[in-house]
Amino acid sequence: MPVGGIRFSSSVQTELDAVLDRILQSFTIDRAIGVDYMTKRFKDLDWVGVALWVFRAVIIVLIIYGVIAKVFFGVGTTYQTSDWATFLVSGLSQGSLYALIALGYTMVYGILFMINFAHGEFFMSGAMTTAVFVAAPMAASGFLDAQPIIGLLAIIVVAMLVAMGVALLTERIAYRPLRRAPRLVPLITAIGASFFWQYFFRGLYGGEIIPFPVPTLLQGRISIFGFDFLRARLGVMVASLLMLLALYILVQRTRTGKAIRAVAEDKDVASLMGINVDRTIAITFMVGAAMAAIAAVFWGLVFRQVHFFMGFTPGIKAFTAAVLGGIGSIPGAALGGLFLGVIESLGPPLVLEGLGVPGAHQLKDATAFILLVLVLIFRPQGIVGEKLSEEKA
Description:
There is one protein chain. The chain is mostly helical and 393 residues long. It has one domain: Orthogonal Bundle (ABC transporter involved in vitamin B12 uptake, BtuC). It is 74% helix and 3% strand. The chain is built from 14 helices and four strands. The strands form two sheets. A two-stranded antiparallel sheet has the order 1-4. A two-stranded antiparallel ribbon has the order 2-3. A hairpin with a 2-residue loop joins strand 2 and strand 3. The termini are far apart.
């Protein structure tokens, strides 16, 4: 057989044919191996992971498209610089409240690894009690307007005492006997405790909306750098940041804070080192409830009303903030709350309007819960959280 027009002897031609056969066999085998390998990889492909990556890409594209359409093409309502500044301050103010409430979730989770869904009712109990027994009588007598600082301090102290009492009762009666129970049991108990306190305070104060008086000092607007802001919003933001700083000092710089951190790390070892674990856990509940009570008073000052169901939505959003920042992390809860408030305030006008969504400003709550889903997909451990070990997960 001639190869390239050249004739070889029969022996050489036989060897060439053998080499060509081996090359063809090798190619066939390699091709079969490649096909088998690709088929196996195709079967082993994580289709859920692929779907999540596609979903992430779609979400990112939609957000970028909405922002570009709003900023560069003016889709939707036209806002002035003062409007955007108002959105930002409103978001930071609301986020400060979420941060204060989220601290209770994250502290309890950090020490007991459970989600205290009754925490929203600690928030509600302080607000309703002070509105009925402290704020309303002081406003009626004129004392709240005459001495607003003293009046607000009295309201905050009473709210903290009530919320801490409710938290201690819940921890002692509902949670402490179940401390060694499977993780699902305290979770169900927390949901039951939440419903119990809701309807307990409904029976105590009624199901109507109760007005929350606001001192003249916090009414109206104040001008800063040419922008007008609600005084109540600015006051809430400043006071909340001071409370967050005070809590950070308590946890990081005091013996009680060291005990809380030790019990969160290992209860048995902390007990061997002489720390009263039960008392430390009770203090943790009290501190978290106190922060929630302060947030409840500020909430009443901003929205000027309280009711028995007021703890549900802020509680769920604060839980979202805790997850967003990194559940179990105090700085993470603060950052998560502020971030959630800003996203709630800026997301509808900046992104949803750019996408042409009708009634964008009515979707604030939906924005918060969509953000929770996105955090669980993109970064389950939160902004500053770390991946938990199997023992703590």
